[in-house]
UniProtKB/TrEMBL annotation:
A Pfam entry, by short name: MarR_2
Record protein name field: MarR family transcriptional regulator
GO BP term, pick one: response to stress
Species classification: Bacteria, Bacillati, Actinomycetota, Actinomycetes, Kitasatosporales
Listed SMART domains: HTH_MARR
Alphabetical list of InterPro entries matching this protein: ArsR-like_HTH (IPR011991), HTH_MarR-typ (IPR000835), MarR/SlyA-like (IPR039422), WH-like_DNA-bd_sf (IPR036388), WH_DNA-bd_sf (IPR036390)
Chain ranges of the HTH marR-type domain: 26-162
Cited PROSITE patterns: HTH_MARR_2
CDD domains linked: HTH_ARSR
Top-level taxon in the UniProt lineage: Bacteria
One example GO MF annotation: DNA-binding transcription factor activity
Length: 167
């Protein structure tokens, strides 16, 4: 078993938080957070493929749609929210539609508008696996977000610990 201060084999070593490199503190902090979230995302990616048999990007689409109180979202809005090209999104939506997880409908009065919504099958599957996926995220965060990342987050968002719910 590795000593407590050693980096686990599957976790990249973090650059020292104290500085001395070329990057200003904000960029260094951002890189620390990106490394941690990338490691968490990789764990989630595997769990999503195993439990839902969809890609991580397709899972993100399902999550966006699951948060809609009723109805769906226009494809252009999904592309904006995920920062994805519309052409790539069209392919991913087609895959989800073939799997019976989403529906695609033209928006009334807008020839180019297409709205995407979850099917009952998708809602049922998300309810079944969401606890397991949430636990995957929690465990990965506990493993990959250490003191350096917490310090980095505090440096990027001063006062976060004192006022966690205020902008």
């Amino acid at each position: 078993m590795a000593a407590r201060d050693e980096t686990p084999a599957d976790q990249p070593a973090c650059p020292p938080a104290g500085g001395g490199g070329l990057l200003p503190g904000e960029l260094r902090a951002w890189m620390l957070l990106l490394a941690a979230t990338g490691a968490v995302e990789q764990r989630l990616r595997c769990a999503v493929k195993e439990s839902l048999d969809v890609s991580h990007d397709e899972f993100l689409i399902l999550c966006l749609l699951a948060e809609q109180p009723r109805g769906g979202l226009r494809m252009t809005r999904i592309a904006e929210l995920l920062g994805r090209p519309k052409t790539r999104l069209t392919y991913q939506i087609a895959c989800l539609q073939r799997a019976g997880l989403v529906t695609r409908e033209s928006v009334c009065g807008d020839k180019r508008g297409v709205e995407v919504a979850l099917t009952e099958k998708a809602r049922r599957r998300l309810r079944e696996v969401s606890g397991t996926l949430a636990e995957t995220v929690t465990q990965a965060l506990a493993r990959f977000v250490g003191p350096e990342q917490r310090e980095a987050l505090g440096a990027l968002i001063p006062g976060l610990a004192e006022n966690p719910y205020e902008p």
